[in-house]
């Protein structure tokens, strides 16, 4: 049984992602809980070219149905720099609710962390936040992704964690979530020649 704060998602055999959502404000505990039913990653080559997009859905949110596998292939060209975005949505509401807007409005209370695993770890794929909150700390709704020219043919995962800072302080230099994890999902990524 799932509760309104956590929904377990599966991305094939690659990961066991967790989706949940923030309340209206971390300063108002017990506020309305929102549902995130889709996480989308988009990579656009910095030198120009078509965007590359993939998403993971949970069609019934916190219901009993299993989530879908990742839709879309994240095949990133070795030796290329990308600009990227992550989008969080509640596609079960009508109209569809863009939860990313709340994350940006409450930037001092959120941060998106990116962790690379598999054959792209180390300098293979480096993902860095390019946006900040009102105090100059990383936010991570937008990012840059640099694919090393020597990793063509390698595969891995890109883990996306949306952290909500309610009780814990948000520290700009942290490398992992020290607050409440609202989203934890892993996308399959490959480096192409």
Separation of the first and last Cα atoms: 44 Å
Would you tell me the overall average pLDDT?
83
Q: Which percent range describes the beta-strand content?
A: 35-45%
Proportion in helices: under 10%
Extract low-pLDDT stretches: 1-20, 24-33
H/E element string?
EEEEEEEHEEEEE
| Sheet with the most strands, sense and barrel status | 6 strands, mixed
In the residues, how many domains can be counted? 1
Using the CA coordinates, give the radius of gyration.
Answer: 16 Å
**Would you tell me the structural class of the helices and strands?**
mainly beta
General shape:
globular
Account of the 3D structure:
It is a single chain. The protein is mainly β and 193 residues long. The protein has one domain. Helix content is 4%, strand content 40%. It contains one helix and twelve strands. Strands 1, 2, 5, 8, 11 and 12 form a six-stranded mixed beta sheet that branches. The longest helix is centred in the middle third of the chain and has 7 residues, at 99-105. It is globular, with a radius of gyration of 16 Å.
């Amino acid at each position: 049984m799932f509760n309104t704060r956590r929904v377990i998602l599966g991305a094939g055999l690659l990961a066991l992602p967790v989706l949940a959502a923030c309340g209206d404000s971390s300063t108002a505990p017990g506020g309305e809980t929102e549902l995130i039913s889709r996480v989308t990653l988009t990579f656009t080559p910095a030198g120009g070219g078509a965007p590359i997009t993939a998403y993971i859905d949970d069609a019934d949110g916190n219901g009993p149905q299993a989530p879908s596998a990742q839709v879309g292939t994240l095949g990133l060209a070795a030796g290329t720099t990308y600009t990227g975005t992550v989008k969080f949505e509640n596609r079960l509401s009508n109209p569809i609710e863009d939860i990313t807007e709340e994350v940006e409005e409450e930037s001092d209370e959120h941060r998106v962390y990116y962790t690379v695993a598999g054959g792209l770890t180390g300098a293979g794929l480096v993902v860095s936040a390019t946006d900040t909150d009102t105090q100059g700390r990383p936010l991570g709704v937008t990012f840059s992704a640099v694919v090393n020219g020597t990793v063509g043919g390698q595969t891995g995962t890109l883990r996306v964690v949306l952290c909500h800072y309610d009780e814990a302080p948000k520290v700009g230099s942290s490398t992992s979530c020290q607050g409440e994890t609202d989203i934890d999902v892993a996308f399959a990524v490959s480096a192409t020649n």
